[in-house]
Amino acid sequence: MARASALLNARRFAEAAALLAPLARLHARVGAVRHLNGAAHAALGDMAGAERELRAAMTLEPARHEAVLLLAQLLGAAGRHEDLVALTDALAALPQAPAGVFDLRARAFEALHMQDARVAARRRIVALQPGRSVPEHNLAAALGDAGDAEEAVLLARRALGAADRPETWLVLGRALQSMGRFDEAEQALRAAAQRRPGYVDALRDLAQLIWMRGGDLATARAVLARDGCAPAVAARLRAVEARLIETAGDGVAAYALLAREGTGGDAVAELTAAHLAMAFDPGQALVHGRRAEAAAPDDPAVERKMIELELAAARPEAALARLDRAIVRQPLDQGLVALQWIGWRLLGDSRAALLYDYRAFVGAAMLDCPPGWTRLEDYIRDLAVALRAAHGLQRHPLDQSLRHGTQTTAELTRSRDPAIRAFTIAIDGPIRRYIEALGAGTDLVRRRRARDYRLNGLWSVRLQPGGHHVSHVHPRGWISSACHLELPETDPGCEDGWLTFGEPGIPVRPALPAEHRVRPVSGQLVLFPSYMWHATVPFRCPGSRLTIAFDVVPA
């Protein structure tokens, strides 16, 4: 045993495994031997063998917490986040549970988009390690992602008091932006970038904030200057600048920037070039995608983009072959399901119509009037007033579906405004009736029905004349929504502002037009599966279009 441990510590993994294999057979009832054998399997990349041995060690000696932690690390690295949580539930419930288990659980909850559980795990670490800046930073980041910007600001400032880290300035900047404190947010983002030259995440957020606040494109682009940056950093910043130019409405110029200055072989820059070229040269887009795949063969973002590129290049069979593998790994990813539907529709596969059964799956109902209001129209008026005040920016963000409008930055479920807080009550009845009307079934929507639901995000969009949403889906949802509150006057028979379904959000040949439309009505909530491509028709008349939306996931 001591010899095997020494070999593992010396990274002589094959020798350790050869020594441990007969020991594990001879001492199959000894937890320490099975644990060490599992560690050897893990070091050699044998996940199945490692899991077998580590679970055996845990069964033989339930108090062997090191085996739990090692297996949890392996499960997290393999993307098996739900299994990680289940494995560590008992250990995390112990009064003297180690901080490491909560760190692993927090990372798993983050991957599962279970932000409240992530915050709870980070709080346990802070309690176990009081006064340390890294746990406080991590808690601040979790709070910010969960929408609790006020406490995130407090924790970030406290962490900065102990250690002046650029990552914490970024967390602070994002939290301040969520609170609508845009001057302070900009200062914090600049502080992050100053402390780490070439800090891509901070510079991206800073350029975006300048753009959304109404600054001209040149000012926002100037933030992304690449003088003196390492080639890899320069490539990432160039990709951000290209996305910014695209956001301003000129995808051709955005691609020209990357074609002129190059991608440096960086996977992210190649993906950006592929995304931009897909609109006008799907063959060249596929070339960029293959370069990204060569640079990052195991990156899920590269895999997803390659599926899109195969579809855009009129290669649905190749796309579906990739999708078969991807969906096995990420069965609940609604974006992958949406891409699969495109492939089926292009090939005339009858499964496309079953997946996009608009009569069964698209529902529209008026909000319930919440307590505190006697008429729904009065509630809608008060809600619209509150939401208009929450729109403090002037332009749309990067990498979102809206064009010519704004999106709220705060997590609205945390709002203190009475009308906004009452919205979750106004939608509860319509959501439950929609789920009940679905009935039982084995399809992708009905089989996820649970006893309850929870909201995954709540935001508002305000579109100006000419504004619209490009076709998109919600990868992390189950059921998605659009609730119209204020609508511009339109001529009878005009479909400006209508919600459309079934037009893919990527260019394909032949083009696939929208198949279903819903006329917007003030106070009406439209619910539909998150995998359905949906968009809005641009409206040309004066006035604005105010909506509030959310995703629903099973609880």
TrEMBL record:
Source taxon at top rank = Bacteria
Q: Which InterPro entries match?
A: CHP02466 (IPR012668), TPR-like_helical_dom_sf (IPR011990), TPR_rpt (IPR019734)
Keywords, ordered alphabetically: TPR repeat
Checking SMART domains in the record gives:
TPR
Which ranges does the UniProt record give for the TPR repeats?
A: 166-199
A Pfam family the protein falls into: TPR_14
Protein name, entry field: Tetratricopeptide repeat protein
